[in-house]
From TrEMBL:
GO function term, MF aspect, one: DNA binding
Protein name (Swiss-Prot/TrEMBL): LuxR family transcriptional regulator
Organism classification: Bacteria, Bacillati, Actinomycetota, Actinomycetes, Micromonosporales
Pfam short name (any one): Response_reg
Native source organism of the sequence: Actinoplanes utahensis
PROSITE patterns per record: HTH_LUXR_1 (PS00622), HTH_LUXR_2 (PS50043), RESPONSE_REGULATORY (PS50110)
Ranges where the HTH luxR-type domain occurs: 152-217
Residues annotated as transmembrane: none
SMART domains according to UniProt: HTH_LUXR (SM00421), REC (SM00448)
Length: 226
């Protein structure tokens, strides 16, 4: 059973998230919060596997709540809920170690697929979020879109063939265990490849590596039924 905490300052959004998540018999919504402070307190109490946090909340926003969760409840992985026009917040959350990013207006199936991926140790970026991140980086002086894609391809080409395979699957939202099964290797081997990939790409977490995979064009959205 995947224990989940939902945090959003809009009651209707929380109700909608709960309604979607409870259609999956493997997901248990153990707590709801209307702000970041309550989210942190409830996470300490209930120890959920995944916290789904609105990026903007009163008092303590999703990024601040995520930082506190990483400090006090490190086993809880974080999915950030966002809307269009919040690109700067997304970049902050990406740098802060969020494991997943979903658009509030996305399909219900994507919410469940993303939550399952993150709970299983993977990273999940909504394709729309990934596209926004890549475009925003290009628009804010981090290089033109063509230049960033060229740079990403060069960084990926410097990986071994096996590391490129692992990165493509990681970028599609698969966990180490799922990648191991797909490539017919032991999970420890995949973990070693992922550590090497992060170091060689110069990124701090799986979600950031997924952005590079999207920029390089080797990652594809994970089908919802997985």
């Amino acid at each position: 059973m995947i224990r989940v905490l939902i945090a959003d300052d809009e009651p209707m959004i929380r109700a909608g998230l709960r309604a979607v998540l409870t259609t999956d018999s493997d997901i248990d919504v153990v707590a709801e919060a209307g702000d970041g402070h309550d989210a942190v307190e409830l996470a300490r109490r209930h120890r959920p596997a995944v916290a789904v946090l609105d990026i903007r909340m009163p008092g303590m926003n999703g990024i601040e709540a995520m930082a506190e969760l990483r400090r006090t409840v490190p086993a809880t992985r974080v999915i950030i809920l966002t809307t269009f026009g919040e690109d700067d917040y997304i970049l902050q959350a990406l740098g802060g170690g969020a494991a997943g990013f979903l658009i509030k207006s996305g399909e219900p199936e994507e919410l469940i697929a993303g939550l399952r991926a993150v709970a299983d140790g993977g990273a999940y970026l909504s394709p729309k979020v990934a596209a926004r991140v890549v475009a925003h980086l290009a628009a804010t002086g981090a290089g033109t879109l063509a230049a960033r894609r060229s740079s990403a391809r060069a960084r990926v080409d410097a990986l071994t063939a096996r590391e490129r395979e692992v990165l493509a699957l990681l970028g599609s939202g698969l966990s180490n265990g799922q990648i191991a099964r797909r490539l017919h290797v032991v999970e420890g081997t995949v973990k070693a490849h992922v550590s090497s990939i992060l170091a060689r790409l110069g990124v701090g977490n799986r979600a950031a590596a997924a952005v590079v995979a999207y920029e390089a064009g080797i990652a594809v959205p994970r089908p919802a039924q997985q």
